[in-house]
Amino acid sequence: MIGVLALQGAFLEHQRMLKKCGVESVQIRKPDEMENIDGLIIPGGESTTITKLLIEYGLDKAILEKTAQGMPVFGTCAGLIVMAKNVANNNQISLGLMDINVQRNGFGRQVDSFEVDLPVDVLGAIPFPAVFIRAPFVESVKPNVGILAEYDKKIVMIRQGNFLGAAFHPELTDDLRVHLYFRQMVEDAKSAT
Ligand code: GLN
């Protein structure tokens, strides 16, 4: 069972993808709804709003408790910002799960949204149709963070242990590979405990 944080943003689209992957999902709005989940997706949306609501509902503590026990988390776009230890030019509090420095709206205002065929080695030879919407990019990472994809010399997908982050929106395509990759991370974490 994978939980999808449903405070704001594109959570329904992630649930649709998980269903196509044969994975049951549940919407998370309260800490007690997290009890039975094996993984969590933090969707895109507005990172300031998501962060504010996370704290208001006490979900930040609940998430940190579960991740300390090894629960995998996948953040897309705003979700990636929420997972970062550092957000450049912004002192907003986030979960601080990943040793990365993120630049909000990093691709600039003039290109609000675009799609590219993005090579991602861990997904195989066929590039991934990556949809970027007012996307952040990862400015720098600590050595313990793996870089899975770059676009225009900017880091746009990373993995650090049980944490996965993408600056783009795989839930807005029909390509299941990123969600299948996360499903595997969740399976691996489950069999490790
Ligand atoms: N620009 C948004 C933010 O900073 C993220 C956009 C998105 O999730 N599509 O939160």
CATH architecture: 3-Layer(aba) Sandwich
Taking Cα atoms only, what radius of gyration do you get, to the nearest Å?
A: 15 Å
CATH structural fold name: Rossmann fold
Mean of the pLDDT scores?
95
The CATH class designation is Alpha Beta
Helix content: 25-40%
Q: What kind of sheet is the major sheet? A: 7 strands, mixed
**How many distinct helices?**
5
What is the percentage of strand-forming residues? 25-35%
What does this structure look like?
The radius of gyration is 15 Å and the shape is globular. Strand 11 and strand 12 form a beta hairpin. Helices cover 27% and strands 31% of the residues. By secondary structure, it is α/β, with parallel strands linked by helices. The protein has a single domain, classed as 3-Layer(aba) Sandwich (Rossmann fold), CATH 3.40.50.880. The relative contact order is 0.18. The protein contains five helices and twelve strands. It has a seven-stranded mixed β-sheet with strand order 2-1-3-4-12-11-10. Strands 5-6-9 form a three-stranded mixed β-sheet. Bound molecules: glutamine (GLN). Glutamine binds next to helix 4.
